[in-house]
Amino acid sequence: MQKIEHIGIAVKDLENANLLFKKLLNQTHYKIEEVVSEGVKTSFFKVGESKIELLQATNNESPIAKFIAKKGEGVHHIAFAVTDIYAEIKRLKSEGFTILNEKPKEGADNKLVAFLHPKSSNGVLIELCQEKERNDK
Ligand code: ZN
Predict the structure, then answer these.
(1) What's the gap in Å between 96 CA and the centre of ligand 1?
(2) Rounded distance from Cα 95 to ligand 1 centre (Å)
(3) Is the terminal CB of the chain with fewer CB neighbours within 10 Å at N or C?
(4) What is the pLDDT of residues 68-87, one digit of tens each?
């Protein structure tokens, strides 16, 4: 694991949360991205080497909608940057962690992502993310 890539925060209203985090961090989000397959709309803020990802559900089946219904708004996951997501999944699996998707999927922000079940990591949803190769280079 290289660093904390970002911390994901579940919010009910992305527009309001963007305003709040603008005040908090004294800067504006640098992008908004919808991940249709996950039912989320996200915005990103840079904080030094790391980022804050705000997530709002776009439908009731979204994992974010379910999370907020259960726990309310708040920290949803911690994402670690990895250089080889396939190797990390294999390593963590052999260490006994439950991987939610063993085949990495497309996440926001040009990343391949995989999640570890919170039950196997002290109640914290862990995201692994690897920067995708850009095809346009
Ligand atoms: Zn994330």
Answers:
(1) 22
(2) 22
(3) C
(4) 999 999 999 999 999 999 99
